[in-house]
Amino acid sequence: MRINRVIRLTALAMGIVRASTAMAEDQTPVKIGAIFAVTGPAANLGAPEARTAEMLVETLNATGGLQGHKIKLIVKDSGGNPEKAVSFAKQLIEEEKVFAIIGPSTSGETMKIKNICEEAGTLLISCAAAESIVNPLAHQVFKTPQKDSDAVRRIFQQMQKMKIAKIAVTSSNTGFGKAGKEQLEKIAPEFGIAIAVSDVYEKEATDLSSVVTKIKAADVQAVVNWSIEPAQSILAKNMRQLGLTIPLFQSHGFGNIRYVKAAGAAAEGIIFPAGRLLVADVLPGAHPQKAVLQKYAREYQARFQEEASTFGGHAYDALLILAKAMETAGTDRAKLPAAVEGLKGLIGTAGVFNFSATDHNGLDIGAFEMLTVKDGKFTVLND
Amino acid sequence: MTSELLVQYLLSGITIGSVYAIVAIGFNIIYNATGIINFAQGEFVMLGGMLAISCLPFMPLLLAVICAVAATALIGALLHFCFFRWLQAPSVLRMIVITIGLSILIREAALMIWGEQVRALPHFTGNEISSIRILGAYLSPQVLWVLGTAAVIVLVLSLFFARTRVGRAMRACAANPTAATLCGINAQAMVTIAFMLSAAIGALAGCVVSPMTQTQYDSGTSLAIKGFTVAILGGLGNSTGAAVAGLLLGVTEALAVSILPVAYKDVIAISLLLIALAVRPTGLFTARAAGALKEF
């Protein structure tokens, strides 16, 4: 008798469980993985990215989620370490079985997980800049920041205007630094610019005055620095302290006001290419990006009490692209890459995205504006 | 190379060397009192910088630095009290492993408290772009602050260890804790003082270098590695040796950059360390006979 009762109870319990899973299936949350360098040397990228992603997911969920599905964002902090990024990518794909991954923050990390995502058939929308992420093309891999080759071209165009022909290049020993250095060296001859010194420093560098001395000895007309670490500010300080007053160009990795604050008076006059987020308020009213940029910048500032940076914008764009692609692909992974490739004229924070089967970045050189630092603030460079 | 450039390389070597030296000195005090190497020393440096930056909005710079140094010294005492004092005759190795654990603990705590942002104290004199002209080359005034602080610390410490009762008692404890206790010295109290002193010096170093190197929750680690190298080169426990070795390493690195890519800088430092360990393990400035008495 007792056994009978146990069986009946078990059957009843199983029935309840089955019913409840059936109910949940209608609104299974879509799991989206995110790998960001929230801490470590690239924290100025990863932290605003993670905050932005969390903010946007909350907003989306509050308005009914994506295609009726709530989103569950799983953020992993890689600390900017490529090895950690690899294990997190595997964990997200194999254990969490995520629908897609956004991030990582840095190029070095992205290159390490590019093949993993490609082989697993999981869409990756990277927030890192290096061109090698989308060239050679991988079916599943996209990126939101502007191309570094376009950043290099914008810098060289500016140099031509300023009649600069002999420069020094410094870069950090990271994926981003290496990729930028390669592009600078490759494209310089096109613009008739000679690179007299090219030096690579540790990403944790705390003093670069010996490099600055080397640059001084080379008698160049300008310096281009390619990195995303606090060393960007240290270089600027060391240059001015050592009395080197030639123009300093930075990469689009300089787009966080914290670097300006860290460099203080030494940041004045630094020239760099960047998306228009940093100057959203001074854009002409008719600019297609103005509304999107202002909305994001205001929401971010109100929520986190700090100024929005282009990096957070990259995460915003990544989620936006994913959301738009899901409008056509739904929750079918197989259709997702083609759906992203079909997106045209999508207005993001980095620029206007026009994806295609051969262009997994979707941005052109027009996405860049040349900015400079004046009175501790970013402003558009006037020729 | 023109003489101006040579001077400039030397000055940039002195700049970074002074940072190494001041961090290295902190290692020596705990070593002198206990014979252990405190791998959380870099975290004291970071804490000093961070606490001063946090105090700065409420008080003038000098007061902020004093508060940071005092608070870090208290933290040093607290750490010793919680993690070392109750150990029954611990081995040197065990204590070293504990310091490694503490360094991770402090780093993670700093990440929770201050976040991942990079901060910096303002320059003590002038600002980010002011420089002093010396023989046609330039130097940030902050370097003089670092050098001056290092010099004062070295002077005060050598007087302290050679002349004062407490200083000599601390050295006695390091040499032989049992004999020191038999002579009526409170060995545990001496070690607590050593932790406080070492934390205070680390914090002071963290404050004066912060305008140059910037401070982040994990910036102590890389400074500690160089500081440790310099402490070994100068001879563990020898503060004057550490100061000289720091400047020597800084200048060597700077001159090497003139012909090699700057990325090889650390290779040079580590090679020097390996050579020193092989040829003269007691350090450049410590007598061999004295070195032979040490456990490490």
Average pLDDT of chain A? 89
How far apart are the termini of chain A?
92 Å
CATH domain class of chain B: Mainly Alpha
Number of strands of chain B: 2
Number of strands of chain A: 14
Fraction in beta strands of chain B: under 5%
Major sheet of chain A, described briefly? 5 strands, parallel
Please state the second-level CATH architecture of the largest domain in chain A.
3-Layer(aba) Sandwich
Report on this model:
The complex is a heterodimer of chains A (383) and B (296). By secondary structure, chain A is of the alpha/beta class. Chain A folds into 2 domains: 178 residues, Response regulator (Rossmann fold, 3-Layer(aba) Sandwich), CATH 3.40.50; 126 residues, Response regulator (Rossmann fold). Chain A has 12 helices and 14 strands. In chain A, the strands form 4 sheets. Chain A has a 5-stranded parallel sheet, with helices on both faces. A 4-stranded parallel sheet of chain A has the order 7-6-8-9. In chain A, strands 10-13-14 form a 3-stranded antiparallel sheet. In chain A, strand 8, helix 8 and strand 9 form a beta-alpha-beta unit. In chain A, helix 3 runs parallel beside helix 4 and helix 5 packs across helix 6. The termini of chain A are far apart. Chain B contains 12 helices and 2 strands, in the order ααααββαααααααα. Chain B has a single domain, classed as Orthogonal Bundle (ABC transporter involved in vitamin B12 uptake, BtuC), CATH 1.10.3470. In chain B, 73% of the residues lie in helices and 2% in strands. In chain B, helix 2 packs across helix 8 and helix 6 crosses helix 8. Chain B has a two-stranded antiparallel sheet with strand order 1-2. Chains A and B meet through helix 2, strand 7, helix 7, helix 8 and helix 9 of A and helix 1, strand 2, helix 9 and helix 10 of B.
